[in-house]
TrEMBL record:
Domain DUF2231 as annotated: residue spans: 7-156
Alphabetically ordered keywords of this record: Membrane, Transmembrane, Transmembrane helix
Name of protein: DUF2231 domain-containing protein
Oxidoreductase found in the keyword field: no
Biological classification of the source: Bacteria, Bacillati, Actinomycetota, Actinomycetes, Pseudonocardiales
Bilayer-crossing regions: 12-35, 42-61, 87-105, 126-146
């Protein structure tokens, strides 16, 4: 995998897919979790967006590792890499739980009477709670990773007041 594209680190480009897709998948997952009509109509779309987000994370971490190997090691970069390595666990778990939620919620009820009638559908409320929890953890982790990455990239930058050029008007 190339480290740079047209002089720009690949990681900087790829990470934007993660920054967009993970919150989008969280929004989609929460929507289909709390709104049954949306779950029936868009549940598999939410699963697809979450799968795309999950697939982008290893590309972002791999390109980040390639970039890290070309930078002077600092505590901020190590912290950013450590947080970035955790994201796949949370988003992959969200994908699994969301897929189970959509699948179990769409299963037709069994015809058997009594307690054996819908044993698998009893999992739906549990899956709903897990989906909400994993969605929250995933979006918080993206914010933490982004913040640590910004600190690692920009912590030594000094800003100055804008310099006006041209004639006074």
């Amino acid at each position: 995998m190339p480290v740079f594209i047209s002089g720009l680190p690949l990681h900087v480009l790829v990470v934007h897919a993660v920054v967009v897709l993970v919150p989008l998948s969280v929004l989609a997952a929460l929507t289909v979790t709390v709104w049954p009509a949306a779950r029936r109509r868009y549940g598999w779309v939410a699963v697809g967006v979450t799968a795309a987000a999950t697939a982008c994370i290893p590309i972002a971490t791999s390109s980040g590792e390639d970039l890290r190997d070309r930078l002077v090691p600092t505590a901020l970069i190590r912290q950013h890499a450590h947080l970035g390595d955790q994201l796949l666990i949370f988003v992959a778990a969200l994908l699994v739980v969301l897929t189970a939620l959509v699948w179990f919620a769409r299963r037709p009820p069994r015809e058997a009477p009594g307690a054996a009638r819908r044993p698998m559908r009893a999992l739906v409320p549990v899956l709903m709670v897990l989906t909400i929890g994993l969605a929250a953890v995933s979006v918080v982790q993206v914010v933490r990773i982004g913040d640590s990455g910004a600190r690692a990239a920009w912590s030594g930058v000094q800003y100055t007041a804008p310099q006006h050029q041209g004639g006074a008007g």
